Amino acid sequence: MRKWFTIAAAVTAAAASVVVISDYGEDEEEGSEALEAYMEAGGIERESLSEEDMVSLDPLDGVGSEPGMQAPDFSLPTLEEDELSLSDFEGDYVILNIWATWCPPCREEMPDFAAFYEDYQDEGVHVLGLNRTATEPGIDAVRQFADDFSLPFPVVIDEEDVVEDRYNVYVMPTTYIITPDGRVAMNRPGYISYDVLEEQYLTIREQYEEEA
């Protein structure tokens, strides 16, 4: 019940831009139609979540997914079977995108994450695509997805929903920007375009470097 109350409070106008985790088994055609309507509308911004809710560099005590908090660490395998920890990237910016193969908005935004990685990988920016493998029909579906989109960044496999619990993920996709000191600077549920991702990253980087 906790997640449903959170969803009702946080996601209203952007319902077509996200997939509620509890409903991932819904008819794919219905989800595709919702995504198409959302995209034709040019992207409906969230009415209940302001930019101040989703983006902040003001430090907060504790570990969690709220902007300003220390990002929860995790150690998980990748599709290449390497072990990867978030703390491995301390000192660099991390774009953490949480997705699933059955999520239409995840498919829609994935080429933008690949393009963003190609554009910014030489600037100390890492993109991690974390798959909620616990909800998938099998690892082959994840491999096929990564191949279909020629993903150039690590695909992290989460077979026990470790990150869903630690980051309180309630919609798909969800994207976080994590600063070099390991704090969450952006927690943005729902679809995000290249332009918005780039704008948020550049704004966060500029402010972070000014305050460093």
UniProtKB/TrEMBL annotation:
Gene Ontology CC terms: cell envelope
The record, for SUPFAM superfamilies, names: Thioredoxin-like
Write down the superkingdom of origin: Bacteria
Keyword Transmembrane part of the UniProt annotation? yes
**CDD domains for the chain:** TlpA_like_family
Q: Extract the InterPro entries matched here.
A: AhpC/TSA, Thioredoxin-like_sf, Thioredoxin_CS, Thioredoxin_domain, Thioredoxin_ResA/DsbE_sf
Keyword NADP annotated: no
Keywords of the record, alphabetical order, are:
Cytochrome c-type biogenesis, Disulfide bond, Redox-active center, Signal-anchor, Transmembrane
Pfam families according to UniProt: AhpC-TSA
| Alphabetized PROSITE patterns for the sequence | THIOREDOXIN_1, THIOREDOXIN_2
Q: Which GO terms describe its biological process?
A: cytochrome complex assembly
Q: Which ranges carry the Thioredoxin domain?
A: 65-207
Where found, per UniProt?
Cell envelope
GO molecular function term, any single one: antioxidant activity
Entry coiled-coil feature ranges: none
Q: What is this protein called?
A: TlpA family protein disulfide reductase
